[in-house]
Amino acid sequence: MGKVEDKKKMKKEALLDSALKLFTEKGPAETSVSEIAKDAQMAKGTFYLYFKDKYEIRDCLIARQTHFIFQKAHRELSAIFEKMVPDQVEDGIVYLLENIIDQFTENPEILRFISKNLSWGIFSNLRIQDLDNQNCMDIFDGILERSSRKYRQRELMIFMIVELVNSTCYNVILNHAPVAVQELKKELICTVRGIMDQFAVAIDDTGVNV
Amino acid sequence: MGKVEDKKKMKKEALLDSALKLFTEKGPAETSVSEIAKDAQMAKGTFYLYFKDKYEIRDCLIARQTHFIFQKAHRELSAIFEKMVPDQVEDGIVYLLENIIDQFTENPEILRFISKNLSWGIFSNLRIQDLDNQNCMDIFDGILERSSRKYRQRELMIFMIVELVNSTCYNVILNHAPVAVQELKKELICTVRGIMDQFAVAIDDTGVNV
Amino acid sequence: MGKVEDKKKMKKEALLDSALKLFTEKGPAETSVSEIAKDAQMAKGTFYLYFKDKYEIRDCLIARQTHFIFQKAHRELSAIFEKMVPDQVEDGIVYLLENIIDQFTENPEILRFISKNLSWGIFSNLRIQDLDNQNCMDIFDGILERSSRKYRQRELMIFMIVELVNSTCYNVILNHAPVAVQELKKELICTVRGIMDQFAVAIDDTGVNV
Amino acid sequence: MGKVEDKKKMKKEALLDSALKLFTEKGPAETSVSEIAKDAQMAKGTFYLYFKDKYEIRDCLIARQTHFIFQKAHRELSAIFEKMVPDQVEDGIVYLLENIIDQFTENPEILRFISKNLSWGIFSNLRIQDLDNQNCMDIFDGILERSSRKYRQRELMIFMIVELVNSTCYNVILNHAPVAVQELKKELICTVRGIMDQFAVAIDDTGVNV
DNA sequence: GATGAATGAGCGTTCATTCAT
DNA sequence: AATGAATGAACGCTCATTCAT
What we know:
Chain A is mostly helical. The first copy, chain A, has ten helices and four strands, in the order H-H-H-H-H-H-H-E-E-H-E-H-H-E. Chain A has two domains: 1-51, Arc Repressor Mutant, subunit A (Orthogonal Bundle); 61-201. Chains A and B meet through helix 9 and helix 10 of A and helix 9 and helix 10 of B.
């Protein structure tokens, strides 16, 4: 019977929602399992039927939220991506990053929660449902594949871009230092283009860079 | 008589040493004040004569360790820096970063401890005793000042470089992914040079970039 | 099934019993929650499931013990009270006080515990279960209402009587000074009658006092 | 050398002053020896040269403050007492009580501190320097001796009066219940006169009471 | 499957007291 | 006589986890 399955899924969702609320409000360290269970309107013991401990639900949430952010970005940009010609692919990466930075700016608590806890290991394995279960890195990869330029060491390149954007945004958005988000964004875009140039390799007679 | 003062300083050092050991072994969250005091061979109450709480000793350690790293780097490079001509200044920055990356590679636990807890706010205010109490950022700044090129928004530029190096090293050194340190280092140097080009402004008749 | 409820009630009773024992033995200030829990044969944490802190259980006990004393007095005197004619009402008050003084004499530790901690605020709000949830003050009030005499400012009058009896008994019973209980009792009765005369007001043609 | 003696006395006074300030501000239980020593501008260890522990200084202060109150009352009333004829002696007792109630009303913190801790044992042994080292009870006694009436069981009578006044004032002044101080005072005076009548014995042909 | 009472180790912190200086 | 660093037991309290119902 799928009814039972549905009920279980709803309970798990309720726990995740409550945990996210509390984690973003005051951090995982200051949130207790009791609080999560109480907020999700169930008994403390029930929590342990769905998650091994606090750290499991935390990791689950990090993945989920990162997933949501990429999903949202991809949906909003899908129209653009579809019409994109090979020469504009680098612009596509920039749009994607801008979209994500904007999401972070609007939800700084989410940024705080994710950034403090996200590692490349989690990130590079995250699957996005909307997109044939591609992982986050594959999204970048997929975009780049359609470029007229070719890139060497694509994973390293994406890794460097993601880490740069993530860590600078964290400080700028949450500590309002050393500059404003808009200023950072402008420079980041420029630097990201630079990084892409750095990793681009010559592929045809038209002749290319670095 | 300075005997008492000496003894107090030694006690404080002992606490800092023990705390560093335990924090790097298992993180501040999993370390208790009791453990620190026990490891430093004194009573729990004595801890509170020297530090307000666990967070104060943690912050003190972050500053201290970052301080040590920059001090070491600066000492090792001082000979080079002194002979440096204006055109080689960008190389100086690269040497500094390489030195720091090497220190991190040799002491990954220190990297874990510092990176997880260091914010730009702490970093940009850290004073280095050896160097006329300059702060860490001033060290970069001082090097750049001697360059034949001029840079706009120096703080933002340094911020981006530091964050990029710090966050990528964290993942690469601690999670061994997605590439080896040496490979990352090679690319980082290239990217950092790119960032410096990005922020450089034309200053003389020879005409320059961006 | 009331089984769980019963068990909880028993645990709470056990805590109250242990706390009373320890509080009367050495006072609330010198009793720790650990001790109470240990004496009641349960874990320290369990205490906190039933009481917010030491002060809550203390206040609960003061109310409980005062309640018991009044309940006992009222039971023992109920036969007398029922047959009482209006002219004997003042004798009823005296019997009540004598009964309470006797209870204190037999349980000096209870007197020590209650008197040191009972304020008029607590006292005048205490509800006695046996007696239609009347509070302690209402018991006096109810008795006085049946008197052929009328009293002005009944609450103040009762307050003065209660405080006088309570504070003099405290010293006499616990410090055996300056006189013996029996001697005090004799005089107290006389003084209490005097206070009632002081607050009595003329109500009919027979003409009365103050 | 009296110089050393003076210095010691001053230190002791400083400790007493600091302790009184802190005890009345937040109660003895919430005041630590460290705080008292720090407030008195000396080292923690020095405290123990003057007082055995916190409880000794507390008891010393209770005696001191009660002493001061009686001293003040006696000074203010000495003119009246000297002119008093035997028939007015009972009025003298009333003036004394009124004066003390007024002092309490003006310094409720002192009342809180003293009442919670004063026992008849301490009270009846307190010596007042101004008055040939008479104790507090002797002051009452001395006044009563000059009365034209004679009293039996003077100590018990004084004890009852003191306890009644002390305990009712405590509640009324500190908890503002159940009535205002002025109202209580009016009734207390009446009750105290009643108690004096109760203990008065016939002494001459005019024939008197009880 | 769901509950929530019970646990008890462990937390950070306080503080009376000692004692070498 | 005076100091204040050091002690360490004890405090109130939290909370992840277990388990009988």
